[in-house]
Design goal:
By secondary structure, the chain is α/β, with parallel strands linked by helices. The chain has three domains: 103 residues, Rossmann fold (3-Layer(aba) Sandwich), CATH 3.40.50.10800; 98 residues, NadA-like (Rossmann fold), CATH 3.40.50.10800; 79 residues, NadA-like (Rossmann fold), CATH 3.40.50.10800. It is 44% helix and 16% strand. The strands form three sheets. Strands 2-1-3-4 form a four-stranded parallel β-sheet, with helices on both faces. The protein has a four-stranded parallel β-sheet with strand order 6-5-7-8, sandwiched between helices. The model has no long low-confidence stretch (mean pLDDT 96). It binds iron/sulfur cluster (SF4).
């Protein structure tokens, strides 16, 4: 065990803090977390937490969401420079411009967006619930931001809606190609291919199962299969190995998100010691961005 672990656990208790870590965090960070999950799971946990302090191990949009759902609590971000490149592909101003072009449309926005972008949305979604959220909207026209791959997947599942796509993407999932999958398939012909819906359409088309990281876990747990090619960020390997022993997983080596790896045990300890960096959002943004997130959780 890392020598920092005991200190973090003791300090966490003393501060009545809860540590939340995304499935893509470093293994040692996942191991000291109270809760590990995908964006949806962690948002729900954040909304119900009775801890005084939430330490969010992940990227800034996740910590902002935790703050929006826990306005009175202190939310700490051990690595405040860890910003998701996809979230930077969609600003509040751009959404506002799109709304003025498509006046009858509503905006469904992936949680991988900044709080100010959320303030312009009608409702948020995650990769777990995007299809059901889009289906539930009364509007026929949906501006779906920012992930073009998730948006394309949703549009194929909900043909009754006219989904207006955005040009954002996750560079990590976008980098996974059909060739990467077919090479792994040649080496492991019996493996089932499971892919995250942030992957390109052509990768999804050759996958056996498509789902969020939590859905992947559920699928592997209940599957009789022993080998899986997993098209998502490599951090997921730790949880899959831990929770599904006796099964083999093959990842695409380059599918690594550097910003998700910024949070280390040292930075978690520093956050608990210094009580920084606190997530601070202005009241106006919080007022407008909380609603779309809460609506999503209510519809879950
Ligand atoms: S894996 Fe992709 S979507 Fe997730 S934080 Fe990294 S860049 Fe953003």
């Amino acid at each position: 065990m890392d020598p920092l672990t005991d200190t973090i656990i003791a300090l966490k208790k003393q501060r009545n803090a809860a540590i939340l870590a995304h499935n893509y965090c470093l293994p040692e960070v996942q191991d000291i977390a109270d809760h590990i999950g995908d964006s949806l799971g962690l948002s729900v946990i954040a909304s119900r937490s009775d801890a005084d302090i939430i330490v969010f191990c992940g990227v800034t949009f996740m910590a902002e969401s935790a703050k929006l759902l826990n306005r009175k609590k202190k939310v700490l971000m051990p690595e405040p420079a860890a910003t998701c490149p996809m979230a930077s592909m969609c600003s509040a101003e751009q959404i506002s411009d799109a709304k003025s072009c498509y006046r009858d449309a509503c905006v469904v926005g992936y949680v991988n967006t900044t709080a100010s972008a959320k303030a312009e949305m009608d409702i948020c979604c995650t990769s777990s619930n995007a299809v059901s959220i889009v289906s539930s909207m009364k509007e026929k026209e949906i501006i779906f931001v920012p992930d073009i791959n998730l948006g394309t997947y949703v549009a194929s599942k909900v043909p009754s809606k006219n989904v207006i796509l955005w040009n954002g993407y996750c560079p990590v999932h976008q980098s996974i190609t059909v060739q990467n999958i077919t090479e792994l398939k040649k080496k492991h012909p019996k493996a089932t291919v499971i892919a995250h819906p942030e992957c390109r359409k052509e990768v999804l088309d050759i996958s056996d199962e498509i789902g969020s990281t939590e859905k992947m876990l559920e699928y592997v747990r209940s599957s009789g299969g022993k080998e899986f090619i997993v098209a998502t960020e490599i951090g997921m390997l730790h949880r899959l190995r831990k929770e599904c022993p006796g099964k083999e997983f093959y990842f695409i080596d380059h599918a690594l998100c550097s910003v998700m790896k910024m949070t280390t045990l040292s930075s978690v300890l520093r956050a608990l010691e210094t009580m920084g960096t606190e997530v601070v959002l202005d009241d106006g943004t919080m007022e407008r961005a909380e609603g779309p997130l809460r609506k999503m959780i209510e519809l879950k």
